[in-house]
Amino acid sequence: MNHDLAPNRTVKKRVPDLAMFGGFPSFGTPLHVGRPNIGARRQLVHRIDAILDSQWLTNNGPCVQEFEARIGEMVGVEHCIAMCNATVALEIAIRALNLTGEVIIPSFTFVATAHALQWQQITPVFCDIDANTFNIDPGKVEQLITERTTGILPVHVYGRPCAIGELEAIADRRGLSLLFDAAHALGCRYRGRMIGSFGNAEILSFHATKFVNSGEGGAVLTNDHKLAEKIRLMRNFGFCGYDTVITLGMNGKMNELCAALGLTNLESIAEFTDTNRRNFERYEMQLAGLAGVHLAPYDEQQTPNYQYVVCRIDAAKAGLTRDQLVDLLHAENILCRKYFSPGVHRMEPYRSSHGDTAVVLPATEAVAAEVLVLPTGTAISESDIEAICGILHFAVANSDEIARALYKRQIDRG
């Protein structure tokens, strides 16, 4: 896909050519991180027509059942329970595991990981990360365990697997539940085994921004039969049979239309992954040697899905801060993201309730100040990537002049 090109977009020859300083934006329409991938439209329309003909729109319809079966088979788990979204899936899994008191999580994650706990009066205890993997640091986890701790909730950030073996050993030794947020990690592996099959359970997301999406959607994956049975009851108001309620529950069901989109996109997972990989390799080639811009590598032995193109910006070497580069790119209609900045510990209500957590999260603070996520997916073309990288090269090469211009603009604005 080629995006609309604005007039005179091709090359930024002078700093005034940058859109921030009055030039034309590089792209006439915005480039997003996580623009939805869409699979075979005819197949999707065929499925939607069948749903409308059947008039079975929700309540565990055939598309939902097929979607669950295909995910379970692909991942190699006995139970996949599809949900209306990943946050509800996480909340129900937390409830089904009887988590209370305190649960240890990374702060370097999407805020929903913490909210799913706090919403149920459970205190998220923020743990620092390994700055090289972006994932929770097992060496710091055990230091945070108290008599109130009931579980550990790690996140496979950007689809990079956590140190699962070490976390499993801690959970087993301390008698804690281990629930993984695998929202980024569909199709990825850890030591040859698919993500989604570890711990007590794992949570997948099929939100529109995920590389396999159902518009809105999520799932709980587990090999624990009793836990799966409990979760299935809880996602449907606690109903057992036609009109008998046997436990507390809520409405967490995925509908048939979302499942139809999820099935259709799942059938294109190899294509989506291959596109992501090619895009990553293009970025890797284009950004090689660019001072202060470090592209985070993937470990091919873990079968990555390449869903996120993640850079860390070293301001001392690049001559511009991460935030300055974000502002420059946004002006060019390149809507890069600062996933995940700030860390959740700096967001409300946690900033107020947790005090100065930042002092014990140095790696989280450092990464959150530097991380920059660039557009990828089927909506991005090779020429788009070349243009994005060209602007980054131009910005670094002219960083002194740009920094002066930004300072002058700040002064002029008072």
Q: What can you tell me about this protein's structure?
A:
With 414 residues, this protein is of the alpha/beta class. The chain folds into two domains: 15-32 and 269-412, Aspartate Aminotransferase, domain 1, CATH 3.90.1150; 41-266, 3-Layer(aba) Sandwich (Aspartate Aminotransferase, domain 2). The chain contains 15 helices and 14 strands. It has a seven-stranded mixed sheet, sandwiched between helices. The protein has a three-stranded antiparallel sheet with strand order 11-12-14. Strands 1-13 form a two-stranded parallel sheet. The protein is globular. The model has no long low-confidence stretch (mean pLDDT 95).
Task: Give a brief outline of the structure.
This protein is an alpha/beta fold and 414 residues long. It has helices spanning 41-54, 62-75, 86-96, 112-118, 138-141, 164-174, 225-234, 256-266, 269-287, 315-318, 322-331, 350-354, 362-370, 382-397, 399-412; strands spanning 31-32, 79-83, 102-106, 123-127, 149-152, 177-181, 189-190, 193-194, 201-205, 218-222, 293-295, 309-313, 334-335, 371-374.
Provide the descriptors you would attach to this structure in a database record:
alpha/beta; 13% strand; 2 domains; Aspartate Aminotransferase, domain 1; 414 residues
Looking at the overall shape, the CATH architecture of the largest domain is 3-Layer(aba) Sandwich
Structural class per helix/strand content? alpha/beta
Could you spell the SSE succession in H and E letters?
EHHEHEHEHEHEEEEEHHHEEHHEHHEHH
Question: Using only CA atoms, what is the Rg?
Answer: 22 Å
